[in-house]
Design a protein that fits this description.
The protein is an alpha/beta fold. The chain has one domain (4-254): Rossmann fold, CATH 3.40.50. 42% of the residues lie in helices and 23% in strands. The protein contains 9 helices and 10 strands. The chain has helices spanning 44-51, 74-83, 99-109, 114-127, 143-155, 173-189, 201-207, 225-230, 235-254, and strands at residues 4-12, 19-28, 33-37, 59-64, 67-68, 84-87, 161-165, 193-197, 210-215, 218-223. The strands form 2 sheets. A 6-stranded mixed sheet has the order 6-7-8-3-9-10, with helices on both faces. Helix 6 links the parallel strand 7 and strand 8. Helix 3 (99-109) crosses helix 4 (114-127), helix 3 (99-109) packs parallel to helix 5 and helix 5 packs parallel to helix 6 (173-189). The radius of gyration is 18 Å and the shape is globular. It binds adenosine-5'-triphosphate (ATP) and magnesium ion (MG). Residues 44-45, 165 line the site of magnesium ion.
Amino acid sequence: MAGLMVRGLTKHFPGSSKPVLVDFNLAVAPGETVVIMGPSGAGKSTLLRVIDRLLEPDEGEVFWNGIPVHQLQGEQLRRWRRQVGFVFQQHSLFERMTVLENCLLGPRLAGIPEAQARERALAALARVGLAHLADRWPAQLSGGERQRVAIARALSMEPELMLWDEPTASLDPLLVGEVKQCLAALAAERSCAMLVVTHEVGFAWEIASRVVLMEAGRKVEEGEPGELFSHPRTELGRKYRQLISEGLALYLTNK
Ligand SMILES: Nc1ncnc2c1ncn2[C@@H]1O[C@H](COP(=O)(O)OP(=O)(O)OP(=O)(O)O)[C@@H](O)[C@H]1O
Ligand SMILES: [Mg+2]
């Protein structure tokens, strides 16, 4: 199958009696935006980390275009990581590098010739609307701009899969809009497979091809957002419907 396929992922952290992932299955096709939602501690970040091989599962498999990612080692594993753009909740820019240098780092590490690396980095910054800030230092940016640079840094790798872990969560509410717009534009391009963890139901409603609800390490419900949020089949789904009915009205009036 083209895209990402996750089968039977199970993980316990040592010293904890509760599993963090339980027989978790998921598929994300190229061009699809799958949004994962669930309460704090549900295992969402752990899932993304296992997919990127920052953590090893106890059981289960991860395939990308049919390639067994869970078996990759050494250079092959590094090559896999370079195909994945990971945008963390806590954006970690390199403070002693300019905006452009932050975005050049990945392509340079991948051995891309300098002229082409610069072209890519500048194109990535242009996509998030920040080409004019290429020579700034991270300390001279707002929170929203910093997060957009983090996105550009991931984009400069021209990833086929993007993993987003609450990309708007650490931002001032006034800055959330610009990062959301940026993510929505990328989702609309439909060029790569995107897996987005967010707590924002209105946002999920707008960008998701599919929403996956997760609780205590398990997938509890999955569906197209209009269908899932209007006809939830689980208690968790009903809680989100409630939030939608309260929050979406607000969201729509803010548009
Ligand atoms: N390195 C670790 N060692 C031990 N337990 C961990 C570790 N990382 C996460 N956990 C535990 O695993 C569970 C799931 O954590 P995870 O970060 O995946 O949740 P989450 O769904 O992303 O939550 P949030 O919405 O708060 O970010 C939590 O109970 C957490 O305390
Ligand atoms: Mg998390």
